């Protein structure tokens, strides 16, 4: 029976088309809102802006803003943290730098970088329930080229109501190892008391997790065997590209708070793995115990073959965990009221044209948002600038899970 399930789902991954999520935006190539035409022309001439080197990766939504990140994989990225006005009628809108053009200017001048708190390179961002935008700045530019570490990995938190910087926290030497790479951030927030917030930042390169304590402006490193990649699941076939990655812990999602004690379940997985694990947030938040709690981490189960996932998000209303499916060009889900088995995982959409490498997703106001970007083609080959390469989709959670095993009973 299990083999039949795998065959059926692999069949879906090869031949399905996206029928559930509506394409909201799409781009052949990215362009930005520059301060002026002259500044844009100067950036093109100096190669501070190389059009084909700009690839969107992360997204989140707050009111009328759709945030889109553009990491500095290569040189020539105009702005790494940006937004789109959701009321923009264009199907391929320009990206507006956030919170300003100046913040997103790459600078190797230490004095200038300090004065402007320059944002160097961002992969994912997260809006919390206190109207704050959490940004994990890797501090690393031209990752696939000269790989210049302009500043330490740094957490930046912005007040979305005023577009001002609330907090800047650079990681300590003890947080970082030789191959550390921080591409995600997930805040753990109690809306009634925003000052007791924490955030979890996975280290996919050195198989650890950084915990940040807002109240004490402190961070510490947690390590566990479950943060490592699975050597059996480091092989990928995406967009006609075969490659191997050893990425460890990457996707994190938080359950709703327990009604009795307020604790949350932290769901996590390595990118190069098909297993999902859990740990209580109370373990992570305890600085003195978090590295001595081996048995508090549990294996939740396997999603099944070929189900490597970059990003995940737990929707508190439906109690469904959504996750990307990069090897299957689609989006998966699991209803947390059911056992975590391959049979209870659903491939809610899949398309080999429009869903090549779903990279990030979020649920906001009852809607599921997804960004796809053909990233392996961008890294290992060359994107065709005459084709649509980047897309953002949206569907209501209700429609997304309808007629699947994730549907609310």
TrEMBL record:
Pfam families attached to this UniProt entry: MRJP
Highest taxon in the source lineage: Eukaryota
Sequence similarity: Belongs to the major royal jelly protein family.
Matching InterPro entries: 6-blade_b-propeller_TolB-like, MRJP/yellow-related
Gene3D superfamilies: TolB, C-terminal domain
Name this protein carries in UniProt: Uncharacterized protein
Record keyword Secreted present: yes
Organism encoding this protein: Timema podura
Keywords (A to Z) from UniProt: Secreted
Localization, UniProt: Secreted
């Amino acid at each position: 029976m299990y083999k039949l399930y795998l065959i059926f789902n692999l069949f879906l991954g090869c031949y399905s088309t996206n029928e559930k999520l509506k394409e909201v935006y799409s781009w052949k190539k990215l362009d930005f809102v520059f301060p002026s035409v002259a500044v844009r022309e100067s950036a093109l001439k100096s190669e501070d802006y190389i059009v084909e080197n700009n690839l969107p990766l992360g997204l989140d939504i707050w009111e009328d803003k759709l945030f889109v990140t553009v990491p500095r994989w290569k040189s020539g990225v105009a702005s790494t943290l940006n937004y789109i006005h959701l009321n923009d009628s264009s199907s391929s809108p320009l990206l507006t730098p956030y919170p300003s053009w100046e913040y997103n200017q790459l600078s190797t001048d230490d004095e200038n970088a300090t004065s402007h708190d320059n944002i160097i390179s961002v992969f994912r961002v997260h809006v919390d329930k206190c109207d704050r935008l959490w940004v994990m700045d890797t501090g690393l530019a031209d990752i696939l080229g000269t790989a210049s570490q302009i500043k330490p990995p740094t957490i930046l938190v912005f007040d979305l109501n005023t577009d001002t910087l609330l907090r800047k926290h650079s990681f300590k030497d003890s947080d970082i190892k030789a191959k550390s790479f921080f591409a995600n951030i997930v805040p753990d927030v109690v809306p009634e008391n925003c000052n007791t917030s924490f955030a979890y930042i996975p280290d996919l390169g050195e198989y650890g997790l950084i915990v940040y304590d807002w109240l004490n402006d402190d961070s510490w490193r947690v390590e566990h065997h479950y943060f490592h990649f699975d050597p059996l699941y480091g092989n990928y076939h995406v967009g006609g590209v075969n490659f191997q990655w050893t990425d460890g812990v990457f996707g994190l999602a938080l359950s709703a708070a327990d009604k009795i004690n307020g604790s949350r379940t932290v769901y996590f997985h390595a990118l190069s793995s098909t297993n999902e694990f859990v740990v209580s947030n109370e373990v992570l938040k305890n600085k003195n115990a978090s590295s001595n709690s081996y048995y508090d981490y549990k294996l939740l189960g396997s999603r099944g073959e070929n189900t490597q996932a970059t990003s995940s998000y737990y929707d508190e209303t439906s109690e469904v965990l959504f996750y990307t499916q990069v090897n299957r060009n689609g989006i998966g889900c699991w209803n947390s009221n059911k056992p975590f088995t391959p049979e209870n995982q659903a491939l809610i959409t899949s398309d080999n044209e429009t869903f090549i490498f779903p990279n990030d997703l979020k649920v906001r106001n009852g809607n599921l948002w997804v960004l796809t970007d053909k990233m392996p083609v961008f890294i290992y080959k060359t994107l065709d600038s005459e084709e649509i390469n980047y897309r953002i989709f949206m569907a209501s959670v209700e429609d997304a899970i309808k007629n699947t095993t994730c549907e609310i009973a």
